Amino acid sequence: MYLRSLFSTTGKQLSHRTASQTSWLRQFASGHREIPALTKERYPSIKRGQFSEVSDSDVAQFESILGGSNRVLTQPEEIQGYNIDYLGSVRGFSRVVLKPKSTDEVSEILRYCNERKLAVCPQGGNTGLVGGSVPVFDEIVISLQLMDKIERIDEYSGILVCQSGCVLETLEQKAAEKGLVMPLDLGAKGSCHIGGNVSTNAGGLRLVRYGNLHGSVLGVEAVTADGRIMDLMSNFKKDNTGYHLKHLFIGSEGTLGVITRLSIFCPTASKSVNVAFLGLENYESVKNTFLAAKQGLGEILSSCEMIDALSLESSTYHFNLQSPIDKYPFYMLIETSGSNMNHDEEKLTNFLTSAMEKGLVIDGTVTNEPTKMRNIWKLRELIADSLINDGYCFKYDISLPLDNFYDIVLAVRERVGPLATKVTGYGHIGDSNLHLNVSCSKYGTEIHKLLEPYVYEYTSNVRGSVSAEHGIGFLKTKYLKYSKRPESLALMHQLKQLMDPNGILNPYKVLPQV
Ligand code: FAD
Ligand code: 2HG
Ligand code: ZN
Q1: What pLDDT is stored for residue 30 in this prediction?
Q2: How confident is the model over 193-227, as pLDDT tens digits?
Q3: Going by DSSP bridges, is the β-strand pair 159-163/140-143 parallel, antiparallel, or unpaired?
Q4: 220 Cα: distance to centroid of ligand 3 (angstroms)
């Protein structure tokens, strides 16, 4: 038993690649992945709503709102990418993509669409994993790509105000220049938008430290289906003035309004950051190491991730990376962020020494060198993409009690047998959030039927959540009932009816069709 390179800078150099570099567009373009079947064919039970179809005069109206044709895309080859999701699991056939630059333009578009009963699909970076960001049929895509202005970053209050189409990684960089850190971080940061993050209430890699976006987002500006602009911006952490309407837009996946601007609280960046990558013998040790990390590291624990052997094998294989430690059944990535290097290192050393003495951790490496920390993070962040590279990947993002956390991976592995290339489990153990991924060479109905509703029934039986952080989108609407009781579902339908009586905002998403 030994702990290699403790606080040293001698770890191995890993190769570079970011999530944005491996976008679906490149993968489809290179012929590496199949263009999915149209959603209406793969899911024939979904019926198109009573919406109008886009006419030439509608297109002319959009051109007049957006001041010309270059922000109204209608050519099939320029629209294709907006119709297919990141996973390659769903495909719509929209014939129009609109690219507003201002809240007023979004408002005019929605007012017009509502009057004409034209359905719309708001789209951010299109990195969503539940089929929510692309049309199911011919909904008009409203892309927030051009709404990417950062209005203000105040280092005193830590408040960042921006339009919703800003890319998360850009915000991270700009916040860092002011000594601040974005309160969320995810593998898709190079492409996803902050508006998409807020609309999905994205979790990510540091939720264990900074909490979820219902807390960090101080205010939003959103446009409702009839074009009304809801100014719910706030520059304060405390604001108890009646119903907290911003929460309706956080996590509602574009079904209640289009988020156009927001203000978000960014904590002060930590001066001292360490990353430990550990090898463990079994899941029980992972669970106990998490408890020991919480107890031993306390306030400096900023990330606690679990990776099983097949997940690491996938990211190292597909992205030509090297693990800094030998092969183990399980790995953990533990990050600390604090303000005093000596204090943090002492805490981390004590925690790791004790975990190794107890036999919880078998091997590990620790570093505070930025390049090496980034390289260790890549091993974890690229797992999601690497599994898609097997051909097709069924992704389940579930909350489970820690006692039952890994059992489902073993159960599913046995259930699907050779139909799968890999059945893996990894994720944010610090938040009880497992990513169960089942990869195969291509999409197949036989394996799909073995997986669903099985995975959701299993999750519901242990009182887990069928969506921990990715949302419901299109792919999970049928399974919402496993996590929401009928009274809650009924209230959700009523809210939707109240806020979007014509149902034009991202139809067929979140709520099951009635
Ligand atoms: P999109 O995919 O474009 O849209 C997502 C949903 O939000 C859709 O329903 C869309 O209609 C709606 N929407 C988008 N913008 C707006 C808007 N301005 N107003 C109203 N509705 C809008 N998710 C996590 O939670 N944690 C992770 O750790 C994580 N890691 C990921 C890693 C990889 C490699 C990938 C590919 C995805 C990951 N995701 C993760 C999923 C995804 O990145 C998040 O759901 C992200 O928040 C989506 O942002 P987006 O801008 O791409 O939104
Ligand atoms: C992650 O944590 C993301 O890497 C993606 O949430 C998970 O693809 C997945 O299943
Ligand atoms: Zn995740």
Answers
A1: 47
A2: 999 999 999 999 999 999 999 999 999 999 999 99
A3: unpaired
A4: 24
Paired sense of beta strands 120-123 and 258-265, if any: unpaired
Q: How far does residue 147's CA lie from ligand 2's centre (Å)?
A: 26
Ligand 2 site, CB within 6 A: 129, 187, 384, 395, 397, 427, 435, 437
* Cα gap 479→452, rounded to integer Å: 9
Amino acid at 128: G
CATH of the domain at 157: 3.30.465.10
Backbone angles phi, psi at 70, to 5 degrees: -75, -10
Nearest ligand to the CA atom of 509? 1
Q: Quick one: three-class SS letters along 77-112? A: HHHHHHHECCCCCCECCCCCEECCCCHHHHHHHHHH
Q: 310 is written with which tokens?
A: 């097949």
CATH (domain of 424): 3.30.70.2740
> With a threshold of 0.85, does the pTM exceed it?
yes
Q: What residues have CB less than 8 Å from 506, skipping those under 6 apart?
A: 120, 121, 122, 132, 139, 253, 254, 255
Q: Which two tokens stand for residue 176?
A: 């860092």
What's the chain's length in residues? 514
| Same domain as 288, residue 380 | yes
pLDDT by residue (tens digit) across 293-352? 999 999 999 999 999 999 999 999 999 999 999 999 999 999 999 999 999 999 999 999
Whether the Cβ atoms of residue 15 and residue 321 lie closer than 8 Å to each other: yes
Domain end call among 123, 143, 163: 143
Q: How many domains does the chain have?
A: 4
| Nearest-ligand number for the alpha carbon of 131 | 1
